[in-house]
Amino acid sequence: MRRYFFLTLLGILWAKSGNSYTIQLVGQMAIPLMLLTLGFTVGKLKSSGLLELIFPSILKFLLCLMCALTIVFLFDLDEIPTAALIIQVTMPVAVSS
Questions:
Q1: Interior/surface letters 26-40, b for 16+ CB within 10 angstroms, e for the rest
Q2: Distance (Å, rounded) from C-alpha 67 to C-alpha 83?
Q3: How far apart are CA 38 and CA 93, in angstroms?
Q4: Close Cβ partners of 46 (under 8 Å, ≥ 6 residues apart)
Q5: Low-confidence residues of the chain: pLDDT under 50
Q6: What is the pLDDT of residues 60-70, one digit of tens each?
Q7: Is the pTM here over 0.70, yes or no?
Q8: Over the Cα atoms of the chain, what is R_g?
Q9: Residues 41-57, buried b or exposed e (16+ Cβ, 10 A)?
Q10: HSE of 14, CA atoms in CB hemisphere, 13 A
Q11: Total H helices, total E strands in the chain
Q12: Taking a C-beta distance cutoff of 8 angstroms, is the pair 15, 23 a contact?
C-alpha cells in the first residue's frame, strides 16, 4: 500500500515536471505491443483446431460490423467517429480486450 502511494506521487511529480511527452510515447506503444503479442500467440497455434475457429470468428466480425453500422446510422456519426467505432468493434478479441 505504501509503495503504491509512493509510485503514484512519483508519477504526479513526473507529469508536473513537463515530461508528459515521455508518458505519451509509452502510451502510444500499447496497440503495437498488443498486436505483436497477438501475432506471437497466433504463431504458436496448432493448425488442427483452426477450422473450428473460422466460423465463429467470421460470425463475430459480421455481427459486430452490423451493430456498428446500425449505431452509425442511428446517431448519424461523422467520418472519424465512424471509422474509430468500426475499427474498434471489428478487432479480434485478443486485441480489443
A1: eeeeeeeebeeeeee
A2: 14
A3: 10
A4: none
A5: none
A6: 999 999 999 99
A7: no
A8: 20
A9: eeeeeeeeeeeeeeeee
A10: 11
A11: 6, 0
A12: yes
C-alpha cell at 1: 500500500
User: What are the grid coordinates assigned to 76, written together?
Assistant: 448519424
* Domain ranges, ordered by start, for the chain: 1-44, 47-97
> How does pLDDT run across 23-35, given as a tens digit for each residue?
777 778 888 888 8
Phi, psi of 53, rounded to the nearest 5 degrees: -95, -15
d(CA 25, CA 6) in angstroms, rounded, equals 23
What's the rounded Cα separation, in Å, for the pair 89 and 77? 15
Burial of 69: CB neighbours in 10 Å, binned 0-12, 13-18, 19+: middle
Residue holding cell 470468428? Answer: 57
Q: Which cell is 42 given?
A: 497466433
pLDDT at 82: 94
